[in-house]
From TrEMBL:
Its EC number is 1.1.1.37. This is malate dehydrogenase. It catalyses: (S)-malate + NAD(+) = oxaloacetate + NADH + H(+). One of its GO terms (molecular function) is L-malate dehydrogenase (NAD+) activity. One of its GO terms (biological process) is tricarboxylic acid cycle. Substrate binds at residues 123, 129, 161, 195. It comes from the Eukaryota.
Length: 355
């Protein structure tokens, strides 16, 4: 028995050191070694696609720390072996495996419960989210074709910008493949909520962890609509405060792009927000009650086919989508502006696949 365990341990270590060694992968020892290590905690299988990027690396680090994760697959088109080796040394429960290049995409996806997608190019100064569109649209399409084939029942957390267009792209790919479940496709807008909580807490002079700001609409510029009239704890803002907060929340991404002065976009706070959201999805999958987060989903809250609002997360994904609730005049005007821009971005995504 002991020699088998020793062999398995050696195989596991070899798998980390030589992730693309196909001869090793074929061996039956490794097949067994891919199972949970003996005595390991039960949990969920999570894949991060774009794991070597600016968001992907801190996101991988934080997911390796999450006790709900038992297996963590890291996929990218470059540099995954290094990131995998590095993160695999962390003494937490999740077993880490790296996948490099498109020929390994299907292996990375097979059997996963949750897929997190930060893949794509980041925003640089002077670049709009639409400038990203042509590059990132193609990347998301390829990845989603893989998901439809290898793990059609997984919950998908889509981070790749522009989210307002990439979520409709993903939906169209899944529809074409006949695997589309609108409850399981979630555009990650959590960073807008994280920023809103932080900026509102600054104005109120309280701990941001005590603040909850619903942010609805989309995930770019004026499509981001913080509902400051619905902030918890209940409070009221002057017209100037409302204008300042709304603008700062909408322009949070640009604030970071400019501050980094060509050295990147919001990667660290994005990774934090993505992990906060992914953790909520995993708690939903586990069957926890009352898990409510904002996300950009297929929706009937407005006349648009997709919209971000509060959703209740459960075993099936977004099991319930909440209405917007009472809006004040400022928010009603903001909603009309948001919908106008959002409609065009959604259509752009749909047309990319249907063209």
């Amino acid at each position: 028995m002991q020699s088998t365990e020793a062999n398995q341990r050696i195989a596991r270590i070899s798998a980390h050191l030589h992730p693309s060694n196909h001869q090793m992968e074929e061996s039956s020892i490794l097949k067994r070694a891919e199972c949970r290590a003996k005595g390991g905690a039960p949990g969920f299988k999570v894949a991060i696609l774009g794991a070597a990027g600016g968001i992907g690396q801190p996101l991988s680090l934080l997911m390796k720390m999450n006790p709900l994760v038992s297996v963590l697959h890291l996929y990218d088109v470059v540099n995954t072996p290094g990131v995998t080796a590095d993160i695999s040394h962390m003494d937490t429960g999740a077993v880490v495996k790296g996948f490099l290049g498109q020929q390994q995409l299907e292996s990375a996806l097979t059997g996963m419960d949750l897929i997190i997608i930060p893949a794509g190019v980041p925003r640089k100064p002077g670049m709009t989210r639409d400038d990203l569109f042509n590059i990132n649209a193609g990347i998301v399409k390829t990845i989603c074709e893989g998901i439809a084939k290898c793990c059609p029942n997984a919950i998908v957390n889509l981070i790749s910008n522009p989210v307002n267009s990439t979520v409709p792209i993903a939906a169209e790919v899944f529809k074409k493949a006949g695997t589309y479940d609108p409850k399981k496709l979630l555009g990650v807008t959590a960073l807008d909520v994280v920023r809103a909580n932080t900026f509102v807490a600054e104005v109120l002079g309280v701990d941001p962890r005590e603040v909850d700001v619903p942010v609805v609409g989309g995930h770019a510029g004026v499509t981001i609509l913080p509902l400051l009239s619905q902030v918890k704890p209940p409070c009221s803002f002057t017209a100037e405060e409302t204008e300042y907060l709304t603008k700062r929340i909408q322009d949070g991404g640009t604030e970071v792009v400019q501050a980094k002065a060509g050295a990147g976009s919001a990667t660290l706070s994005m990774a934090y927000a993505a992990v906060k959201f992914a953790d909520a999805c995993l708690r939903g999958l586990r069957g926890d009650a009352g898990i409510v987060e904002c996300a950009f989903v297929s929706s009937e809250v407005t006349e648009l086919p997709f919209f971000a609002s509060k959703v209740r997360l459960g075993r099936a994904g977004a099991e319930e989508i909440y209405q917007l609730g009472p809006l004040n005049e400022y928010e009603r005007v903001g909603l009309e502006k948001a919908k106008k821009e959002l409609a065009a971005s959604i259509q752009k995504g749909i047309s990319f696949i249907r063209k």
